[in-house]
From TrEMBL:
It comes from the Bacteria. Residues 20-121 form the SnoaL-like domain. The lineage of its organism: Bacteria, Bacillati, Actinomycetota, Actinomycetes, Micromonosporales. This is Ketosteroid isomerase-like protein. Keywords: Isomerase. Gene3D superfamilies: 3.10.450.50. GO terms for molecular function: isomerase activity.
Length: 151
């Protein structure tokens, strides 16, 4: 498989109607990483499928609409939109956001770094602020301003 075909297969395995975490993990090198950059989350090795199952638990019909795919040697750059319906509890440090039934359509850019036909590093740059706004979790600017004033 070409590097682009490996990445396209990874997206296929991550679809809500397929959701094959074991197959997804098998596309990575032994020491591969999945980096959810906006959320400062790195999954390594056998933790990698958790990135799929956790998200699909909140958005079970998750779909990734690939807009542009560019293979540049061992790097594949993808512009996409992550779409789905908020049907599961969304975990936060203060508790879960209950399902809203809202649809999400989140602009995202992914960089895939491959070595010898396997994924070494996957960096996902999703617009987390857009996702949160679409499920009704807007920033609490008042609390942030009050906390800053006390500091």
């Amino acid at each position: 498989m070409s590097n682009e075909e490996v990445v396209r297969e990874a997206y296929r395995l991550a679809e809500g109607n397929v959701l094959d975490g074991h197959g997804f993990r098998a596309l990575f090198t032994e020491d591969g990483t999945f980096n959810d950059v906006p959320n400062s989350l790195t999954l390594r090795g056998d933790e990698i499928p958790l990135g799929l199952t956790g998200f699909a638990g909140v958005f079970p019909d998750v779909h990734r609409e690939l807009l542009e795919v560019h293979a540049l040697g061992d790097v594949v750059a993808v512009e996409l939109r992550i779409q789905g319906t908020h049907l599961g509890a969304f975990p936060t440090p203060l508790g879960d956001i209950r399902p809203t039934g809202n649809r999400i359509d989140v602009p995202t850019a992914d960089l895939w770094y491959l070595r010898d036909g396997r994924i070494e590093r996957f960096n996902c740059y999703n617009a987390a602020n857009v996702l949160l706004a679409q499920i009704g979790a807007t920033p609490d600017f008042t609390s942030a301003i009050e906390a800053a004033a006390k500091a």
